[in-house]
Fold:
Amino acid sequence: LAKTTQPISMDSYEGQEVNITCSHNNIATNDYITWYQQFPSQGPRFIIQGYKTKVTNEVASLFIPADRKSSTLSLPRVSLSDTAVYYCLVGDGGRGFKTIFGAGTRLFVKA
Amino acid sequence: NAGVMQNPRHLVRRRGQEARLRCSPMKGHSHVYWYRQLPEEGLKFMVYLQKENIIDESGMPKERFSAEFPKEGPSILRIQQVVRGDSAAYFCASSPRDRDHYTFGSGTRLTVV
Structure:
């Protein structure tokens, strides 16, 4: 199972773009990269998932280089409500995700 | 389409009592996963179930903990003879297939006094 490494915390200001990078050097060929967001006292919420290159949805973009050993979650123009913990997961589904929820990255957005 | 429903939201038990946590997956989801989260920590996988089957319980303590997902009704995580160390937030997630991303419930916060 691929292990992930993320920064423990990040600070930003409202309106800025935030990029959170996750390292996963041992990613397997059939692994996908998935990011979740968690607010206090709530369950994690799916943000975005990708396999390679770039994926974009209404919330975020996910950039994955050709070697797939890292990925970057990009949050455009953050607001105070984006303050949360962001988890990077690597796996091929149920079995792949079972031990990969690390401590995540705590993002603090300031006014 | 209601999301993943967990109840109760908060549960207080005395040491030695039993705790039963319920999880109703999203409609159409047949895969259920349970996670435990201690304060300021990430989620730790406990067990993965499909209807009437335990697929992977490698993250669940061998004693006092059990899980089921019957043909009818919610998935149940059962903790017998609770101890203070069992105090945590327990999250349930579901997915339509085991390779899909998960939808999480709001969790049950268990406090053992």
User: Anything to note?
Assistant: The CA atoms of residues 36 and 93 of chain B lie 11 Å apart. The radius of gyration of chain B is 13 Å. Chain B touches chain A at residues 4, 31, 33, 35, 41-45, 48, 55-56, 58-59, 89, 91, 93, 95, 97-107, 109 (CB under 8 Å). Chain B has a mean pLDDT of 92.
